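user: Kindly work through both lines:
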Amino acid sequence: MAATKPYKLDLEPQKRNVFVTQLHARDDEDDITQIPVVREPGHRLLESSTNTRQRTLLLKQEVETDKVDAELEAKRREFKERMEACEKRRIEVQKKQQRMKDRVSKFEKFIEENEVKQRRAIQKYQQEVRLRAMKKSELQILTEQLEEIKQRHRSLQKLLAQYKKYETYLLAVVEAMPEDYITSSEDKVKGLMMRHRTLDEANKDLLSNLNAIGDEFEATKAKLDLLKQEDNTKKLWYNSQLAELKTLEEQKSGKNQRKEQNFLLTKDNLKFKRTELGITLMAIDNIYEKCRKEKSYDLPADKVNIDDKLKHIEYHLKEREQVAYIVQTDTGTTIDSFKPDSPKPNKEKQTKSVRVKVP
Protein backbone atom coordinates (compact mmCIF):
# COMPACT_ATOMS: atom_id res chain seq x y z
CA MET A 1 0.00 0.00 0.00
CA ALA A 2 1.33 3.45 -0.94
CA ALA A 3 2.37 5.79 1.88
CA THR A 4 -0.24 8.31 2.87
CA LYS A 5 0.49 11.89 1.71
CA PRO A 6 0.30 14.78 4.18
CA TYR A 7 -2.82 16.79 3.65
CA LYS A 8 -3.21 20.45 4.43
CA LEU A 9 -6.56 21.98 5.08
CA ASP A 10 -6.93 25.66 4.13
CA LEU A 11 -9.66 27.46 6.02
CA GLU A 12 -11.01 31.01 5.87
CA PRO A 13 -10.51 33.39 8.74
CA GLN A 14 -12.60 32.17 11.55
CA LYS A 15 -15.28 34.14 13.15
CA ARG A 16 -16.31 34.02 16.70
CA ASN A 17 -18.68 31.21 17.14
CA VAL A 18 -21.52 31.73 19.49
CA PHE A 19 -24.26 29.25 20.27
CA VAL A 20 -27.64 30.88 20.30
CA THR A 21 -29.22 30.27 23.65
CA GLN A 22 -31.43 33.34 23.94
CA LEU A 23 -34.38 34.32 21.86
CA HIS A 24 -34.18 38.09 22.22
CA ALA A 25 -32.16 40.10 19.78
CA ARG A 26 -28.66 41.28 20.49
CA ASP A 27 -26.84 44.36 19.40
CA ASP A 28 -23.74 42.64 18.20
CA GLU A 29 -25.47 40.02 16.02
CA ASP A 30 -23.74 41.22 12.93
CA ASP A 31 -20.35 40.07 14.15
CA ILE A 32 -21.62 36.66 15.37
CA THR A 33 -21.90 33.51 13.31
CA GLN A 34 -24.86 31.48 14.35
CA ILE A 35 -24.29 27.68 14.44
CA PRO A 36 -27.45 25.66 14.58
CA VAL A 37 -27.74 22.37 16.49
CA VAL A 38 -26.97 19.55 14.03
CA ARG A 39 -27.64 15.88 14.70
CA GLU A 40 -26.33 14.38 11.43
CA PRO A 41 -22.91 12.62 11.23
CA GLY A 42 -19.87 14.43 9.91
CA HIS A 43 -19.54 12.72 6.54
CA ARG A 44 -23.17 13.43 5.80
CA LEU A 45 -22.65 17.05 6.66
CA LEU A 46 -19.60 17.22 4.42
CA GLU A 47 -21.47 15.65 1.55
CA SER A 48 -24.61 17.70 1.92
CA SER A 49 -23.03 20.96 2.88
CA THR A 50 -22.78 23.53 0.13
CA ASN A 51 -19.86 25.23 1.81
CA THR A 52 -17.63 22.14 1.71
CA ARG A 53 -15.06 22.25 -1.03
CA GLN A 54 -14.57 19.58 -3.64
CA ARG A 55 -10.94 19.11 -2.70
CA THR A 56 -11.88 18.39 0.89
CA LEU A 57 -14.38 15.80 -0.25
CA LEU A 58 -11.84 14.24 -2.58
CA LEU A 59 -9.28 14.00 0.19
CA LYS A 60 -11.84 12.45 2.43
CA GLN A 61 -12.76 9.88 -0.26
CA GLU A 62 -9.09 9.04 -0.79
CA VAL A 63 -8.66 8.51 2.94
CA GLU A 64 -11.62 6.19 3.00
CA THR A 65 -10.38 4.37 -0.11
CA ASP A 66 -6.93 3.86 1.45
CA LYS A 67 -8.61 2.58 4.57
CA VAL A 68 -10.75 0.12 2.56
CA ASP A 69 -7.68 -1.00 0.57
CA ALA A 70 -5.81 -1.62 3.80
CA GLU A 71 -8.71 -3.63 5.16
CA LEU A 72 -8.97 -5.56 1.86
CA GLU A 73 -5.25 -6.33 1.93
CA ALA A 74 -5.58 -7.50 5.51
CA LYS A 75 -8.51 -9.68 4.54
CA ARG A 76 -6.53 -11.12 1.63
CA ARG A 77 -3.62 -11.98 3.90
CA GLU A 78 -6.03 -13.49 6.38
CA PHE A 79 -7.79 -15.46 3.58
CA LYS A 80 -4.44 -16.67 2.24
CA GLU A 81 -3.36 -17.77 5.70
CA ARG A 82 -6.67 -19.49 6.24
CA MET A 83 -6.44 -21.22 2.82
CA GLU A 84 -2.92 -22.40 3.65
CA ALA A 85 -4.21 -23.69 6.97
CA CYS A 86 -7.11 -25.37 5.17
CA GLU A 87 -4.72 -26.97 2.68
CA LYS A 88 -2.61 -28.27 5.53
CA ARG A 89 -5.71 -29.60 7.24
CA ARG A 90 -6.89 -31.16 3.95
CA ILE A 91 -3.54 -32.89 3.54
CA GLU A 92 -3.70 -34.10 7.12
CA VAL A 93 -7.29 -35.27 6.58
CA GLN A 94 -6.27 -37.15 3.41
CA LYS A 95 -3.45 -38.77 5.31
CA LYS A 96 -5.86 -39.69 8.08
CA GLN A 97 -8.33 -41.05 5.50
CA GLN A 98 -5.58 -43.12 3.90
CA ARG A 99 -4.56 -44.43 7.30
CA MET A 100 -8.22 -45.15 8.04
CA LYS A 101 -8.62 -46.94 4.67
CA ASP A 102 -5.57 -49.04 5.40
CA ARG A 103 -6.90 -49.87 8.82
CA VAL A 104 -10.38 -50.58 7.36
CA SER A 105 -8.94 -52.86 4.67
CA LYS A 106 -6.95 -54.73 7.31
CA PHE A 107 -10.01 -54.82 9.54
CA GLU A 108 -12.23 -56.01 6.62
CA LYS A 109 -9.86 -58.90 5.98
CA PHE A 110 -9.97 -59.67 9.66
CA ILE A 111 -13.79 -59.42 9.61
CA GLU A 112 -14.04 -61.66 6.53
CA GLU A 113 -11.80 -64.24 8.17
CA ASN A 114 -13.90 -64.02 11.31
CA GLU A 115 -17.13 -64.33 9.27
CA VAL A 116 -15.77 -67.40 7.47
CA LYS A 117 -14.79 -68.88 10.82
CA GLN A 118 -18.20 -67.94 12.20
CA ARG A 119 -20.05 -69.56 9.27
CA ARG A 120 -17.96 -72.68 9.63
CA ALA A 121 -18.62 -72.73 13.34
CA ILE A 122 -22.37 -72.19 12.75
CA GLN A 123 -22.49 -74.96 10.13
CA LYS A 124 -20.61 -77.28 12.43
CA TYR A 125 -22.94 -76.33 15.28
CA GLN A 126 -26.01 -76.96 13.10
CA GLN A 127 -24.63 -80.30 11.99
CA GLU A 128 -23.91 -81.20 15.58
CA VAL A 129 -27.43 -80.12 16.58
CA ARG A 130 -29.01 -82.19 13.78
CA LEU A 131 -26.79 -85.14 14.60
CA ARG A 132 -27.66 -84.79 18.27
CA ALA A 133 -31.39 -84.64 17.43
CA MET A 134 -31.05 -87.71 15.19
CA LYS A 135 -29.16 -89.60 17.85
CA LYS A 136 -31.68 -88.50 20.44
CA SER A 137 -34.60 -89.70 18.27
CA GLU A 138 -32.77 -92.97 17.58
CA LEU A 139 -32.13 -93.36 21.29
CA GLN A 140 -35.80 -92.73 22.02
CA ILE A 141 -36.87 -95.25 19.35
CA LEU A 142 -34.42 -97.84 20.63
CA THR A 143 -35.60 -97.19 24.18
CA GLU A 144 -39.22 -97.70 23.12
CA GLN A 145 -38.26 -100.87 21.24
CA LEU A 146 -36.38 -102.10 24.29
CA GLU A 147 -39.42 -101.44 26.45
CA GLU A 148 -41.65 -103.27 23.94
CA ILE A 149 -39.22 -106.20 23.87
CA LYS A 150 -39.11 -106.29 27.67
CA GLN A 151 -42.89 -106.16 27.85
CA ARG A 152 -43.18 -108.90 25.24
CA HIS A 153 -40.59 -110.95 27.14
CA ARG A 154 -42.64 -110.60 30.32
CA SER A 155 -45.84 -111.57 28.47
CA LEU A 156 -44.08 -114.57 26.91
CA GLN A 157 -42.83 -115.63 30.31
CA LYS A 158 -46.39 -115.42 31.61
CA LEU A 159 -47.63 -117.48 28.64
CA LEU A 160 -44.83 -119.98 29.19
CA ALA A 161 -45.81 -120.35 32.81
CA GLN A 162 -49.46 -120.61 31.76
CA TYR A 163 -48.81 -123.24 29.06
CA LYS A 164 -46.41 -125.27 31.20
CA LYS A 165 -49.23 -127.48 32.41
CA TYR A 166 -50.23 -128.24 28.81
CA GLU A 167 -46.67 -129.30 28.06
CA THR A 168 -46.74 -131.62 31.05
CA TYR A 169 -50.06 -133.02 29.84
CA LEU A 170 -48.71 -133.56 26.30
CA LEU A 171 -45.66 -135.34 27.63
CA ALA A 172 -47.91 -137.63 29.65
CA VAL A 173 -50.01 -138.29 26.52
CA VAL A 174 -46.90 -139.08 24.48
CA GLU A 175 -45.77 -141.57 27.09
CA ALA A 176 -49.22 -143.17 27.18
CA MET A 177 -49.86 -143.45 23.40
CA PRO A 178 -48.58 -146.36 21.27
CA GLU A 179 -45.21 -146.08 19.64
CA ASP A 180 -46.44 -146.47 16.05
CA TYR A 181 -49.25 -143.87 16.44
CA ILE A 182 -47.01 -141.06 15.21
CA THR A 183 -44.31 -141.37 12.60
CA SER A 184 -40.80 -141.28 13.91
CA SER A 185 -39.70 -137.73 14.66
CA GLU A 186 -37.26 -136.09 16.97
CA ASP A 187 -39.91 -134.23 18.96
CA LYS A 188 -43.01 -136.33 19.60
CA VAL A 189 -44.81 -133.43 21.24
CA LYS A 190 -44.60 -131.40 18.01
CA GLY A 191 -45.71 -134.44 16.03
CA LEU A 192 -48.69 -134.87 18.35
CA MET A 193 -49.58 -131.18 18.00
CA MET A 194 -49.31 -131.38 14.22
CA ARG A 195 -51.53 -134.46 14.28
CA HIS A 196 -54.05 -132.60 16.42
CA ARG A 197 -53.88 -129.57 14.11
CA THR A 198 -54.49 -131.78 11.07
CA LEU A 199 -57.46 -133.49 12.71
CA ASP A 200 -58.84 -130.15 13.86
CA GLU A 201 -58.61 -128.68 10.35
CA ALA A 202 -60.25 -131.79 8.91
CA ASN A 203 -63.03 -131.48 11.50
CA LYS A 204 -63.51 -127.80 10.60
CA ASP A 205 -63.66 -128.68 6.89
CA LEU A 206 -66.25 -131.37 7.57
CA LEU A 207 -68.31 -129.00 9.69
CA SER A 208 -68.15 -126.30 7.02
CA ASN A 209 -69.16 -128.86 4.36
CA LEU A 210 -71.98 -130.05 6.59
CA ASN A 211 -73.18 -126.49 7.09
CA ALA A 212 -72.92 -125.81 3.35
CA ILE A 213 -74.85 -129.00 2.55
CA GLY A 214 -77.47 -128.09 5.16
CA ASP A 215 -77.82 -124.60 3.68
CA GLU A 216 -78.06 -126.08 0.20
CA PHE A 217 -80.67 -128.58 1.41
CA GLU A 218 -82.71 -125.78 2.96
CA ALA A 219 -82.44 -123.72 -0.23
CA THR A 220 -83.44 -126.73 -2.36
CA LYS A 221 -86.34 -127.48 -0.04
CA ALA A 222 -87.49 -123.86 -0.29
CA LYS A 223 -87.24 -124.05 -4.10
CA LEU A 224 -89.24 -127.32 -4.04
CA ASP A 225 -91.97 -125.70 -1.94
CA LEU A 226 -92.01 -122.74 -4.30
CA LEU A 227 -92.26 -125.04 -7.33
CA LYS A 228 -95.11 -126.93 -5.66
CA GLN A 229 -96.95 -123.68 -5.04
CA GLU A 230 -96.38 -122.60 -8.64
CA ASP A 231 -97.54 -126.03 -9.87
CA ASN A 232 -100.71 -125.81 -7.80
CA THR A 233 -101.31 -122.28 -9.06
CA LYS A 234 -100.83 -123.42 -12.66
CA LYS A 235 -103.18 -126.36 -12.10
CA LEU A 236 -105.86 -124.02 -10.80
CA TRP A 237 -105.32 -121.66 -13.74
CA TYR A 238 -105.42 -124.51 -16.27
CA ASN A 239 -108.59 -125.90 -14.66
CA SER A 240 -110.24 -122.48 -14.86
CA GLN A 241 -109.14 -122.13 -18.50
CA LEU A 242 -110.45 -125.63 -19.25
CA ALA A 243 -113.80 -124.79 -17.67
CA GLU A 244 -114.02 -121.60 -19.73
CA LEU A 245 -113.11 -123.50 -22.91
CA LYS A 246 -115.74 -126.14 -22.16
CA THR A 247 -118.32 -123.40 -21.67
CA LEU A 248 -117.30 -121.80 -25.00
CA GLU A 249 -117.45 -125.20 -26.68
CA GLU A 250 -120.97 -125.78 -25.42
CA GLN A 251 -122.01 -122.31 -26.57
CA LYS A 252 -120.46 -122.80 -30.04
CA SER A 253 -121.98 -126.28 -30.40
CA GLY A 254 -125.42 -124.78 -29.62
CA LYS A 255 -124.84 -122.00 -32.17
CA ASN A 256 -123.73 -124.56 -34.77
CA GLN A 257 -126.83 -126.64 -34.20
CA ARG A 258 -129.03 -123.56 -34.63
CA LYS A 259 -127.13 -122.58 -37.79
CA GLU A 260 -127.56 -126.11 -39.22
CA GLN A 261 -131.27 -125.92 -38.58
CA ASN A 262 -131.47 -122.49 -40.23
CA PHE A 263 -129.41 -123.75 -43.16
CA LEU A 264 -131.75 -126.68 -43.69
CA LEU A 265 -134.72 -124.33 -43.57
CA THR A 266 -133.21 -121.82 -46.03
CA LYS A 267 -131.66 -124.39 -48.38
CA ASP A 268 -134.63 -124.40 -50.79
CA ASN A 269 -134.76 -120.61 -50.83
CA LEU A 270 -131.06 -120.48 -51.67
CA LYS A 271 -131.54 -122.86 -54.59
CA PHE A 272 -134.26 -120.62 -56.01
CA LYS A 273 -132.11 -117.50 -55.58
CA ARG A 274 -129.15 -119.22 -57.23
CA THR A 275 -131.33 -120.18 -60.20
CA GLU A 276 -132.57 -116.61 -60.60
CA LEU A 277 -129.02 -115.32 -60.26
CA GLY A 278 -127.79 -117.70 -62.97
CA ILE A 279 -130.59 -116.68 -65.33
CA THR A 280 -129.86 -113.00 -64.69
CA LEU A 281 -126.13 -113.44 -65.32
CA MET A 282 -126.81 -115.35 -68.55
CA ALA A 283 -129.15 -112.57 -69.71
CA ILE A 284 -126.49 -109.94 -68.93
CA ASP A 285 -123.88 -111.96 -70.86
CA ASN A 286 -126.20 -112.28 -73.88
CA ILE A 287 -126.99 -108.56 -73.91
CA TYR A 288 -123.27 -107.74 -73.51
CA GLU A 289 -122.42 -110.05 -76.44
CA LYS A 290 -124.97 -108.25 -78.64
CA CYS A 291 -123.56 -104.87 -77.61
CA ARG A 292 -120.02 -106.15 -78.19
CA LYS A 293 -120.88 -107.28 -81.70
CA GLU A 294 -122.38 -103.88 -82.54
CA LYS A 295 -119.58 -101.86 -80.91
CA SER A 296 -116.78 -104.29 -81.66
CA TYR A 297 -115.49 -104.61 -78.09
CA ASP A 298 -112.24 -106.47 -77.73
CA LEU A 299 -112.89 -108.40 -74.54
CA PRO A 300 -115.36 -111.30 -74.43
CA ALA A 301 -117.96 -111.68 -71.68
CA ASP A 302 -116.01 -114.24 -69.66
CA LYS A 303 -113.07 -111.80 -69.23
CA VAL A 304 -115.10 -108.76 -68.07
CA ASN A 305 -116.54 -108.34 -64.59
CA ILE A 306 -120.23 -107.77 -64.01
CA ASP A 307 -119.91 -104.02 -63.26
CA ASP A 308 -118.15 -103.27 -66.55
CA LYS A 309 -120.74 -105.33 -68.44
CA LEU A 310 -123.60 -103.35 -66.89
CA LYS A 311 -121.83 -100.06 -67.66
CA HIS A 312 -121.41 -101.05 -71.33
CA ILE A 313 -125.07 -102.08 -71.56
CA GLU A 314 -126.22 -98.82 -69.93
CA TYR A 315 -124.06 -96.78 -72.29
CA HIS A 316 -125.46 -98.70 -75.31
CA LEU A 317 -129.08 -98.12 -74.22
CA LYS A 318 -128.48 -94.41 -73.71
CA GLU A 319 -127.07 -94.13 -77.23
CA ARG A 320 -130.14 -95.91 -78.64
CA GLU A 321 -132.48 -93.59 -76.78
CA GLN A 322 -130.62 -90.52 -78.04
CA VAL A 323 -130.80 -91.78 -81.62
CA ALA A 324 -134.54 -92.42 -81.28
CA TYR A 325 -135.04 -88.98 -79.78
CA ILE A 326 -133.15 -87.33 -82.67
CA VAL A 327 -135.21 -89.25 -85.27
CA GLN A 328 -138.50 -88.31 -83.63
CA THR A 329 -137.43 -84.68 -83.43
CA ASP A 330 -136.59 -84.59 -87.14
CA THR A 331 -139.93 -86.17 -88.14
CA GLY A 332 -141.92 -83.81 -85.90
CA THR A 333 -143.31 -86.46 -83.66
CA THR A 334 -143.69 -85.36 -80.03
CA ILE A 335 -144.07 -88.33 -77.84
CA ASP A 336 -143.09 -87.82 -74.22
CA SER A 337 -142.50 -91.47 -73.73
CA PHE A 338 -139.46 -91.39 -76.05
CA LYS A 339 -137.66 -88.46 -74.44
CA PRO A 340 -134.38 -89.24 -72.77
CA ASP A 341 -135.50 -87.58 -69.54
CA SER A 342 -138.64 -89.74 -69.12
CA PRO A 343 -138.31 -92.84 -71.32
CA LYS A 344 -141.25 -95.30 -71.54
CA PRO A 345 -140.10 -98.20 -73.69
CA ASN A 346 -142.30 -101.08 -74.78
CA LYS A 347 -142.56 -104.13 -72.65
CA GLU A 348 -141.02 -106.22 -75.41
CA LYS A 349 -137.88 -104.08 -75.61
CA GLN A 350 -137.68 -103.26 -71.90
CA THR A 351 -134.39 -104.23 -70.26
CA LYS A 352 -133.68 -104.22 -66.56
CA SER A 353 -130.46 -102.82 -65.21
CA VAL A 354 -129.56 -105.14 -62.40
CA ARG A 355 -126.56 -104.78 -60.08
CA VAL A 356 -125.70 -108.14 -58.59
CA LYS A 357 -123.12 -108.83 -55.91
CA VAL A 358 -121.41 -112.09 -56.66
CA PRO A 359 -120.50 -113.97 -53.51
Remarks:
- Confidence is low (pLDDT under 50) at residues 1-7, 335-359.
- The longest strand covers residues 17-18.
- Strands lie at 17-18, 33-34.
- The chain has four helices and two strands.
